[in-house]
Specification:
The complex is a heterotrimer of chains A (276), B (282) and C (307). Chain A is 41% helix and 24% strand. Chain A contains twelve helices and ten strands. Chain A has helices at 48-56, 80-85, 93-96, 103-114, 122-132, 149-162, 179-196, 207-213, 231-236, 241-248, 255-262, 265-275; strands at residues 6-17, 20-32, 37-41, 63-68, 71-72, 86-89, 167-171, 199-204, 216-221, 224-230. A six-stranded mixed β-sheet of chain A has the order 6-7-8-3-9-10, sandwiched between helices. In chain A, strands 2-1-4-5 form a four-stranded antiparallel β-sheet, covered by helices on one side. In chain A, helix 5 packs across helix 6 (149-162). With 282 residues, chain B is mainly alpha-helical. Chain B contains twelve helices and no strands. With 307 residues, chain C is of the alpha/beta class. Chain C has one domain (14-305): P-loop containing nucleotide triphosphate hydrolases (Rossmann fold, 3-Layer(aba) Sandwich), CATH 3.40.50. Chain C is built from twelve helices and eleven strands. The chains are: A alpha/beta (276), B mainly alpha (282), C alpha/beta (307). Chain A binds chain B through residues 56-58, 80, 83-84, 86-88, 90, 92, 94-101, 106, 109-110, 113-114, 156, 159, 162-163, and chain B through 2, 174-176, 178-186, 189, 193-194, 197-198.
Chain lengths: 276, 282, 307
Amino acid sequence: MSEAFLSVEGVTKRFRSAGGEVIALEDVSIRVDHGECHAIIGESGSGKSTLGGLILGLFEPTSGSVRFKGEILGAPRRPLRLKRAIQLIQQNPLSALNPRRTVGQSIRLAFDVHAIGEKAQRGKRVAELLGEVGLPADYALRSPHGLSGGERQRVAIARALACEPELIVLDEPTSALDVLVQARVLQLLMRIRHQHRLTYAFITHDLAVVRGIADRVSVFEKGRLVESGLADAIFATPQSDYTRRLLAAVPVVSDEEARFRDRFRAAEVDAEEAED
Amino acid sequence: MTWFADSPGWRAFRRDTMAMTGLTLVALVVLAALFADWIAPYPSHAGPIGDFGAMGAPPGGRFLLGTDTIGRDLLTRLIYAYRLSLEMAIVVLAIATPIGVVVGLLAGYLGPAWSYGLMRLTDVFLSIPPLVLAMSITGFLEPSAIHGMIAITAMWWPWYARLTYNLTRAERQEGYVVAAEIVGASLPHILFREILPNCMPSILTKMTVDVGFVILIASSMSFLGLGAQAPTPDLGSMVADGAKYMPDAWWLTVFPAIAILIVVMGFNLLGDGLREAADVAR
Amino acid sequence: MSPASAATVNERKAAVLAVRSLSVTFQSPTGPFEALRNVTLHVRPGEKIGLVGESGSGKSTIARVVLGLLQEERDVAVSGSVRLGLREILGDQSFIRESRGDRVSMIFQDAVSALNPTFTIGDQFKEVLRRRNPTISTAAALRRARVALADVYLHEPDRVLGSYVFQLSGGMSQRVMIALALINDPDLIVADEPGSSLDVTVQARTLHLMNDLIGRRRTSVMFISHNLGVVREFADRVYVIYRGGIVEHATTAQLFADPRHPYTRALLAAIPRLDQRGIPDVPETIPGFADPLIEHEGCEEPSLASA
């Protein structure tokens, strides 16, 4: 079997809390191939963000391992090389940029940390990145203050790209944005993925977005992986009740979608009664 | 100080009568101290020698606020005392703030062991009554303005450590701090370039208020004879010396006391105004 | 036609809520900001209207005016007319102050922060019931509260009544808020993004529940949301609001089958579809968002003459 690009192998993560231990993830194994957009789906408490944190090295798994191209990803003192390869785009555009640093300074940080390019060329490279995410070059000198949510998110994308990463963890990157802006940012993310041959771990609860962009899907419920597979297959014939319940709950805007969704509603009613 | 130049904040500040009063008082005190040599009516009276022909003159006439027992102009000595007080406050804060801020940043950002150790150390200093700590330090050493400053500095930094610690704890959750970690930024970069600039408004506001409090503490110490020694003009020792001649030469005590009140109140009002203006700007 | 249409004619005689030419301007340190521009809308008895727009469109400002909350703030100019039943509330705060929580109630996005953290749920029911009937006894109030909680499928009413809000889950708090909003049988409920801070499955269940209870009582609802899908499932009639002005007004069926305003069309086109791959292409600039109001057939406001 070929070596996986990113593999999560039997990972359990427990957090200590005031009332004892919380199991955030339990015995989770998934595999992300190079170049795919892998959606990680779940509601609050599903463990989806914990999984993102493990991939990024924000904390260590309690047991099991996360491997990137065969190499075990630890948390503390992760080598710069691996930090550079795995980047993050966060949910909240308001806190993603330091209000006391200019847009250019935020993007440029990666060049200085990883010694990317000639010093003299870095300003030019910042301008190129801004252009790539659809912002004018003079934004480099601006403070994040006057920027809209969508613009901030574009800057955050440029900052991640500055590292020239291979894998990007996207943690609900558009859920705080208005519909029109969301569509534009999603388009941008898709374009960038193809141009830079990136792999995405796309954490979200929005199944319509998942249907739009994901190649493969892993569904989490209460720290457990309930289903993982090709997006086409899961949307056509979801195997678990939980996935069906999620699908059945999506508010939709057209009759075709409603018909598609309501296929899952009949099954859902029984499940809900059982849970209550 | 971009936060200060923000127009909504500055507008709110200007509308705030108390803040503007504070600013005016502070400006008067600072200007007087800076230009003491030109403003003071009898600059030579800042030293040991006064006008022996006018010993104990009451306020009015040639000496606006009167003279002391050896004929030195009180107004002149108050102006020079302001200079000394401000110098002391600036030196104390210039040393205490960086120490406290670095301790607070490290304790707030690093893991639980660091934060526990550093903050318990801070608590130890905070639990000693300030004047007692200062007195015991000057007790070891000789009473002098310099030793007084050392004493005050030793008791002042923990407040900045605690303030910065709390601010840093909040900052480290912010998306941009997480982003800098993930990009791979160094610890100094994260502490001093990402976190610290966002703590500065609160720290500067506290420093403003603290100028007044340091002057108050320094005056209390010199009132007890633990600060600046004669013949240096000092607000606290002037109150103490004058008290011997109450109530006949009341001006020797009352005017220095009012001078302390003015400077403490001025910096307090200014600090409060800055805090509110910063809130509005945000 | 059917008897139903005769009933509709009757209902038109007194709109529960009639907002006419409402404009709101905020004075901010950076200059005046026009939050609402000439907004006209109405809610008939038993009708659920949706008010849909993006963040900053002014949809929540409308709710705050209707609840009389905005008028109590400084630095805000409100003009036009807002009638609850036949009473004008602009310029006279006394009526809306009495009506809030009684004739007009509200359901907010985040129930956990909307409920008072320092009183038990039982105390909050008592407080709300006393707005209608100041002499109601504690025992009677708790009896009614228990029935109301059973209506929202909270199966341990006594435990809930003795709890503080932090002891309940988000979904439970949301149900408590719905029960509180309904207990005085109000004429109008203003629901501002209800459940949007909850998980999708919990939100769906909450909306389902709300729909069911409100439908049974025939309470009128002004439902505010940024989510067109949620509005489609909940509302009978929809107003689309863009930058402080209503741009399209239609029944729900009309709006989703035949959106006519460029802004509404753009919004609908931008939503990713559950049944197909790909993300819709949204140009950086779309003309026509500032076009005037488009009102679909049969949605006109009942005329004053018939009131």
